[in-house]
Amino acid sequence: MERLLEFVGNHPLYFSLLISILILLIWNFFGDMLSGVKSLSPEEVTGLINRENAKVLDLRTQKEFEKGHIIDAINISIDQASEHFDELKKYKKNGVIFCCASGSVSIKRARKLMNEGYEKVFSLKGGILSWQNANLPLIKGLK
């Protein structure tokens, strides 16, 4: 313990970097639980789409969407997502799954929709990258 205090006293920058990295790691592991939005694996998303006819909302740009998207996904850019909340009412009982490139943006948008009173709101964990890594199909072009 004495050596730890000596290290902290002699190397405050290294110690603060260590604490910062630990906080980021903890946030990475437990951030999803704290957000209130359930993040689903690609397999869980597939099941939800097939069983409950949930709707996938792709928050990437149109160019990214055209390069490859989940079947029957709706492309809503991040800038327009708030404007489309009223249109999503028809999917309220079946469920809404947000996805983006890596999964970080979709959690924020899903949380906003939950604040509007939606209960079945999910996020694709890892975004389209995790979908591709699971070797699940993507559709190219627009609908």
How would you describe this protein?
This protein is α/β, with parallel strands linked by helices and 143 residues long. It has two domains: 2-32; 36-133, Rhodanese-like domain (Oxidized Rhodanese, domain 1, 3-Layer(aba) Sandwich), CATH 3.40.250.10. It has six helices and five strands. The chain has helices spanning 2-10, 12-35, 42-52, 62-67, 104-115, 127-133; strands at residues 38-40, 55-58, 74-75, 96-99, 121-124. It has a five-stranded parallel beta sheet with strand order 1-5-4-2-3. α5 (104-115) links the parallel β4 (96-99) and β5. The model has no long low-confidence stretch (mean pLDDT 87).
Work out the number of β strands. Answer: 5
- State the helix count: 6
Superfamily (CATH H level) name of the largest domain: Rhodanese-like domain
CATH topology of the largest domain: Oxidized Rhodanese, domain 1
Residues in β-strands, percent: 5-15%
Please describe the topology of this protein.
Blueprint: H1 2-10, H2 12-35, E1 38-40, H3 42-52, E2 55-58, H4 62-67, E3 74-75, E4 96-99, H5 104-115, E5 121-124, H6 127-133
Parallel strand pairs: 1-5, 2-3, 2-4, 4-5
Q: Could you give a quick summary of the protein structure above?
A:
By secondary structure, the chain is an alpha/beta fold. Helix content is 48%, strand content 12%. The protein is elongated and about 60 Å long.
